[in-house]
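ARCHIVE RECORD
Type: protein–small molecule complex
Small molecule: adenosine-5'-diphosphate
Source of inputs: curated submission
Record status: active
Notes field left blank by submitter.
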Amino acid sequence: MSSTTKESLTEATFASFNLSDGTQRAITEVMGYTNCTSVQAETLPATLRGMDVVVKAKTGTGKTLAFLIPGIERMLKEPAGRGKVAMLVISPTRELAAQIAEEAKQLVRHHKLGVQVMFGGTNMNKDINDLQRRAPDVLVATPGRLLDHLQNTETLRPLLSNLRMLVLDEADRLLDMGFRQEIEKLTRMLPPKDGRQNMLFSATYPSNIRELSKIALRPEYQLVDTVG
Ligand code: ADP
Ligand code: MG
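STRUCTURE (tokenized, with ligand):
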């Protein structure tokens, strides 16, 4: 655990959120966490109710669990259905995507849920074989690879028809890396945003992130602006 995170732990505990038994046990036993960080304590009340959120918080404050927990809890209550992806997380880099997928795998340890990650620089047929063997409940991907599948291969798109949650992680980095067009294209290729919960996470909140929020989120989204 980084000291930054330790310092930002709050009085709020994960146990106070009435999470499913499997999720609670994973947090306690697999991850070893009891108390929420600020961003988790401020975000979970809204996201567990299914609200769209824009969350502004610094790097290292625990944003990953702030979206993974509500995602997992929602798909347990309202499954996307057999062979369908319930949650799509878009992440700017391979490293970040891989880290998110690892954290998701820990979190679903006691659930019968699958996690898959895909990013550029690897064989797309491997992605396709994995998707065909079992559609993941949680899919974490970089924008380029995701778009490549949606535009050039047939397997992924039908698996996304019942998407329950979309996460844009590190949205400011997504834009800094020049992914705006890709993100807009992606959101147009996915089913309409009204049918799912949309969450955007960013360390900063400049005007281009506000514009992206309007494109990707339902109009009544909540802004969670953590201190610092
Ligand atoms: P961010 O996405 O905001 O940069 P991460 O989600 O990657 O931050 O979390 C930063 C670090 O803090 C990770 O090592 C993570 O495992 C740890 N962490 C997250 N939540 C907690 C918590 N509630 N208690 C202790 N450590 C935590
Ligand atoms: Mg992060």
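CURATOR ANNOTATION: The chain has a mean pLDDT of 95.
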